[in-house]
Amino acid sequence: MQDARQYAPATLRNREAILETLLQILPPTGNILEISSGTGEHAVYFAPHLQPRQWIPSDPNPIAISSITAWQKYYPSPNLLTPLMIDVTETDWQTHPQLQNQDIQAIVNINMIHIAPWTACLGLMSGANKILTEGGLLYLYGAYKQNGKHTAPSNADFDASLRNQNPEWGVRDLESVIDVAVAQNLVLQTVKPMPANNLSVIFRKTIE
């Protein structure tokens, strides 16, 4: 039987630091929606540590969905739900039938915004505004420019590599991401430096 698990080397390098941050900010109970779960390695690592919270992985790529499912079989956790196929560039993604009545307390998005078209960031923020209740959290992790400048030479090289792969990709200006979030009733709470010149960026939903 073919093993459908995919591997992302960065996961092993960043998962402990991200988990430490999530444990500090997440509410003690509730449902957490992960947007763009990728290989599923983060999901299977985080879920056991975050019980009794429920972790809902998702991705738009069928190969990623297969990988998440395969990882779940190797590392099952009762609070890790079946992955959903969600594409945040679709305007009504937040109406996914399996998200209804789920009471999403937080949305987690790791390493997507720079490896996706800008429309993915816009769609993520718009959907988060609709899904999250007052006080809900949006957690972003990844590389960002600040004040229009890269925070490290390695990030500049990474940005060039991304844009060579796809002109619609690239390390984003943090200020631009914050502006989009604010327009969707998501107020910046914290920008936390993380290993390898990445940032944790945390927003809280306010009432309209």
Shape: globular
* Tally of helical segments: 6
Q: Structural class from helices and strands?
A: alpha/beta
Contiguous low-pLDDT stretches (5 residues minimum) are none
Biggest sheet strand line-up: 2-1-5-6-10-9
What would the average pLDDT be, to the nearest integer?
A: 95
First and last CA, distance: 51 Å
The ordered H/E elements are HEHEEHEEHEEHEHEE
Concise structural overview:
The protein has 208 residues and is an alpha/beta fold. It is 37% helix and 22% strand.
If you had to describe this structure to a student in words, what would you say it looks like?
By secondary structure, the chain is α/β, with parallel strands linked by helices. 37% of the residues lie in helices and 22% in strands. It contains six helices and ten strands. A six-stranded mixed sheet has the order 2-1-5-6-10-9, with helices on both faces. Helix 4 links the parallel strand 5 and strand 6. The longest helix is centred in the N-terminal third of the chain and has 17 residues, at 9-25. The radius of gyration is 16 Å and the shape is globular. The chain starts with 8 loop residues before the first helix and ends with a strand.
